[in-house]
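Human: Cast an eye over this sequence-structure pair and say how the chain folds.
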Amino acid sequence: MRAIMGLDPVGAITRSVEAFLVALLMVFAVACEQAKLPNLLLISLDTVRADHCSAYGYGRSTTPVLEALSAEGIVCDAAYSVSPITAPSHATLFTGLMPQTHGLRVNGERLSDFGLTLAERLTAAGYQTAGVAGSFVLNRTFGLDRGFEFWDDYFPAEGSKHPSSEWMGHEVPAGFDRRADQTTEIAADFLRDSRDPDRPFFLFVHYFEPHGPYVPPDRWRKDFPCDQGSSELESMVSAYDAGLAFTDDEVGRLLKVLDEMGSTEDTIVIVTADHGEGLMTHGAMAHGQHLYDEAVRIPLMFRWPNRLAEGRKLAPAVSLADLAPTILELLGINEGAQEMDGRSFAPWLLSPSVEGVTFPVFMFRGKVRRAVVEKRWIEGERFGVLDGQWKFLTSESEEDELFDLEADPKERMNLASSYPQEVERLELLLNPWVRMKSPTDGSGITLSLEERQILEALGYGF
């Protein structure tokens, strides 16, 4: 009867099922699009102090590419490395752990198997992972390649700035390092020829320039000339700046490859450095001896089109130890960050309204041989903490130093004797890190209950 009246129950049911399936497919497609993981390009510049980057207000145009990048994203005004040397800093970059935790305290040591690396975590999440090292310091001998499917660390002897067959007791099979343009070519080849189109990629690129010796290509040296009668130091600083400009240009060349591939919109780009350079600001030309800002304050910037605000500055101090957990949160990967020493500041990047909370930033210098710098002995390990305007440095063999970075950004006036209450407060923050022993050295973590409570209150877990 219903069929005669024009009602077709079978057809109605079929159409309803079809409509439901179409709606289900649309929901599934939207969910898939939302679940699509972005690519990640993480660039590490060796030996770059933030205050020599024009992106941070330096008078010379050393980093026009980074200036453009920061205009398209977010620049961290006060980013700090955990160490003034390369291997410990990169170990922290990859693990989110402080040197006291991951156990790699000085160059030439091997990263332990304690804790997972960022590459291991992203591989497990479905990423294709690749790394391009710029110097032997990041050779796979030292375990910093852990988790990467592809790791390029072979450096031809020709063109190396450091012709050496041995370094820190390890044989150097060919060259020690490669120039920035060679690094760009290898990274670009991976993007063009080796990437898996069915997986997001995580590409880490380490530029060794402008690490000493400062011998930039002539084309860049001419852009940073010295006046007649300039001192040897002025000439060396100009050469350092030229090497930085050369590297900046190569970063731009690599970013153009992303553009050519149509991957810019789908890629988070992060540019940072492992540490700075002395340039005689406190009596050291190179790095590794001090924890002053020229040695540990580094550039850090993010670009993620349509997700992160453009042209924004992030004021609170952040640490290189915070980068791995921040990356995981940006990618929506919920596992792993709680195991790290660093804290994610992804909420600060994603929403300006949550900015304002600050945390102390810790830094560490591994053992150095006894030496005289600016008529003072330096020796052994040294620890530092930055909390608000106050920066405190301490060790067993050197005098304590307290600086008010707001009033004294050059760190020239030691206020330790004038503000004993601040010294006491910052010592309390530092004490757990000073006494902490790496869980990889067989000694375990030996902290008092009070020290554990201090660290836990700051967000550090065990």
Summary: The radius of gyration is 25 Å. Residues 135 and 437 are 29 Å apart (CA to CA). The domain at 38-354 is CATH 3.40.720.10 (Alkaline Phosphatase, subunit A).
